[in-house]
Model the fold of this input.
Amino acid sequence: MIHLGFPAALVALLAGIGVYGVLARRNAVLVLIGVELILNAANLLLVTAGSRAGAPLSAGPVLTLFVITIAAAEITVALAIILVLFRRSGNIDLTAVPDLSDDEDEPTDTDVQPAMDRAPAREGAP
Amino acid sequence: MSWIVRMVVVLPALAGLLGLLARRQRAVASAVAISVSAYVTVLGLIQWIAPSRSADIDTLGRLPLGDLAVPLHLLSDRVSGLVSFVVALVVLAIQVFTAWYLRDDPRYGQFAATVSLFASGMLLVVQSADLVLMLVGWEIMGWCSWLLIGHDSERPAARRAAYKAFLVTRVADIGMVVGIVALAARAHSTDLFAVLTATGEPALLTIGLVGVAIGVAGKSGLVPFHDWLPDAMEGPTPASALIHAATMVAAGTYVVARLFPLYAGHDGARTLLAVLAAVTMVYAALLAFAQTDLKRLLAYSTLSQIAVMLAALAAAPAPTPTDPRVGPGIAHLIGHAFFKALLFLGAGWLSVLTGATAIAALRGRLRRTGALRWSMGIGLAALAGVPPLIGFFTKDTVIDAALEGTGAGARIVVVALFVTVVLTAAYCTRAWLLLDTPVAATAPAPDDETAIVAEEDVAVVTAADSADDAEVERVHAHGHEPITLPAAFVVSVLAALTVVGTLFLSSLRGAVHVGLVGALLSVLLVAGAALAVWVLSDRGRSDVAERLPVSVRESAVRGFGADTAYAGFARAVTALARLVVVLDRDVVDAYPRATAAVARGAGRVGERSHRAVPSMSLLGLLCGVVLVAVLGVAAWR
Amino acid sequence: MTTRDIVFVAVGAVTALSALLSVTTKHVVHAALWLLVSLGSLAGAYLVLGQELVGLVQLLVYVGAIVVLVLFALMLTRAPIGPHAEIDTPAWQRVAGAVLGAATTILLASLLLPLFFGARADLDTAESLTPQVAQAIFGTWVWPFELLSVLLLVALIGAFAVSRLVLTREEAPTVRVTTHPSALADATQPAGERP
Done:
């Protein structure tokens, strides 16, 4: 026997922590960690709901498995995008003003705060 | 019978179209114009003398307009038969005269075609038994008058005169259209007989009659709208003859005659018409006395005579079943058509001979011209109302009808008529004395004297001298082309008609009805006025108008500033329109446009604040998600 | 409060604590490692809840694959080793994040706790044991399951395509050399005027 109130509380906690993680980080990979936490909160909610008596079609665990699979696909694509972003602009700082222009000039860094993810080669350039 | 009535309207229009297509071939154009005019004249004669009278002649069939019946019928009775015959006759005379007068004009073809179309419009007004058809003819005439007056379109004065005529009559046509709509709404039909027999709704009747009276005042040149007519002298002389003699200005009289049973039963509209006509006839006769240009003098006399026709209708007693009481007005219309066409064609002939229309340049030039001298003399005598001529009979019929009439309008009209008789006789005598008295009688060197007087008078003439210039240019272009036999013949025929035309009127009931007292009085007045002018002008050796103060005379030549008043009125209307535009754009539209401006500004602010920073977007997104979730949960609870 | 409850509370506390650490630590790599702990203990929570299959898949996929991918991404983007002050957004944004996170927690708690308060799961006679889950997957849910395999394939190809995007920016310097001002000046200057 287990009381389902505890997992529900954990769901709420994990989701809140995930939201904070999304908003408190400027590194894109760390933002992704927050997203993962929110996803896991959803998973836990599915499992919790599936554990109630009379849950039909084993929907809780099955959907959890599906979500895990989708999360794997999602994080693959997200990491590919992050790598492209890094190759293009030299950093993955989400607070930086992005260079949305299509021209091939160097990005102007005048209004970008120095970011921790800046490429060392560019920082060391004369 | 009905095909004749239809052909009378349709043929001139077709001739206009054909003449326009054949405008390059001068001979073809003039042959089409003259032959069709002649044929239409024959048809008009048949329509007049044929015994059968028919109404409800179908044209295009009934217009499907729901409750409003628009039968588009034509009508043939004594009045329309006689008037259309006279119109066709005058148009024929003018077409023959034009073929000579505009012999060297490169745009003769267009002119002749326009005259044909103009005739078609007038004949449509005459034949129509439907207010819509009447309005169509009315508008065709308005448009053609613009074309004809502006024929010499390379001259700014002609263009201005054309626009002035068009705009002034157009403003008055607002009243015409409103009036016709009101009458049709009252009768639920545009058919003339339905309109005449409809009953009830006095407010609509008043609006309709007053509106039509205003429209008539515009086309016929009653007082507030009179000033376009003298300026219309900028057109070639045949165009002036056409507009003045039988068509455009007379159309107003004809329309009022058609609607006479309604006017006879409505004192307000009738008194308005009587006052306008009385004022116009006296005022225009006074101005005619002071003119320095022969064509402008004739133009003012036209204004005066048209007012006489309308006064006959405004003052005539109520119609009885046996006597429609429109006879005097129509009779004067026809008489005036004859002698005014004669006078204008004679003036055109004289201007070609002398190369001018200013009276100072024409002094004494009539003496050695033979047939022309006789024609002008008959025309001026008819205008003055000398007994055996048609002008005497028709004018005294009008006076008689006014004496029989009752009410304030009739009394005003009677007084104005007698004053007008005196003034008309005076200016006709003055014109005749100036044109006919040899200059040699006053000065040893006539040519020098003429030149000096011309120079002096050109300073006075101002507005008239441009018309004079046009004639000079035309004459130089002609190289003093001698008059052709047909052109001289039509002038003589018109002179003959002026003498014997009274016989025409015998077919019309009440058209010739001369009271003994009125006739005696008017003959005495005419004789007295002529004698006074003869004496005052030193037996024709000087211009009696020179006895007027120079300032009065100058402003009389300019029409006492009516032109300035029109321009001021137009400017005021334009300013008002601009004000409305400004109000509409900057006040009414301000609210819708302000929302657009605010939305655009908000968008710009948002665009500037949104710098596509991903973390800010995430923050906003999650804020929204939480907010929506809170709202959703709150609503769900 | 049963034994399972106590165990769940313990595992849940570890999960929540490590999740909190993973979003607040100043070490970039530590964040990924704390995520590892959090997801692993969440797998333990699944076990406590009686879902062995889900717990194991969680371990395999999340702990084994996803966290490793995250670590790889951090290395490829040259994440610094050691504490770094600038991995966080400005303070006001973090405060806003905390407020929003707390709001999310309160909202979910206020929604979920009344739903699940007093609800119990009798795990000794559980209906969704592994055989039942397997039967459900390959019976009721077989079409979504097959679709998921297609999704994985698409994601694989998509990630490959995205990472191979042609970046024109890297070719810019070669262009610029040819249009150097001095080179242009040399080219346009007439030969006779050279010193």
Q: What stands out?
A: The interface with chain B takes residues 19, 22-23, 26, 28, 31, 94-98, 100 of chain A (CB under 8 Å). The CA atoms of residues 46 and 83 of chain A lie 32 Å apart.
